[in-house]
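Collaborator request, handled under Task 6.
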Amino acid sequence: MPDVLVWIYAGLVGAAVGSFLNVCITRWPEGESVVSPRSRCPECGYGIGWRDNIPVVSWLILRGRCRGCGERISPLYPAVELIVALVWIGATVRYGASWQALAIAIFFTLLVGIAATDARTYIIPDEFTLGGLAIGLLLAALPGGITLVQALIGAAVGFGVLYATAMLGEWWLKKPAMGGGDIKMMAMVGAFLGPVGAVLTIFLGALVGSVIFLPISLKTQRLVPFGIFLAVGAAVTEGWGDILVNWYTTSILGL
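Structure tokens returned to the collaborator:
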């Protein structure tokens, strides 16, 4: 099959996965099932049929409004579908039609879901973190990517480092310094990226969070949705982690 057709197929699958991810983002923080009831408008209860549930396309045709009541539909829905479609295309372009491409596409899909739910609700559902951990370990047993041993060590390191940081922060601040969802998220990230990737993710997430959100948080006293910055750190690590580690060891440590 020509590469372009593979990329198109990956994009269509990704868009469909993104559509389901929207359901997860909306329902999991509320403790609701993603299986039933069927998708419906939260304002008027209008059941969303298949023609109104085509990723991105239906939102454009309906001009971002519910067919039943005319209320606006959040642009977050088509944005998630488009982002996940691009993620699946990018993974296929980079790794070809392989298990590694599938693993990275799923990993980035989980990161999108985590970032979206944490931004909306300050909650990272266990379905993303613990479910993602199980998927990461399962995929590590397949050809390509890191080994199962590296995935297990990575999960332990990611969980352990962030747990220790949270305990130290709580002792220092005399109040909870980090949510349990962030800690479980790092176990998932470590299962996909290994121990070095987990540590680099935490460093980059803390760096991005400190530069962008910490000044706002100190001024407004709002909680920091750290999962967003860990997701950014994990994405950068997957894409450029080896380059960053090599630069650090050669230019900074002189090794």
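The cover message to the collaborator said: "The chain has nine helices and no strands. The CA atoms of residues 19 and 49 lie 13 Å apart. Please let us know whether this matches your experimental observations."
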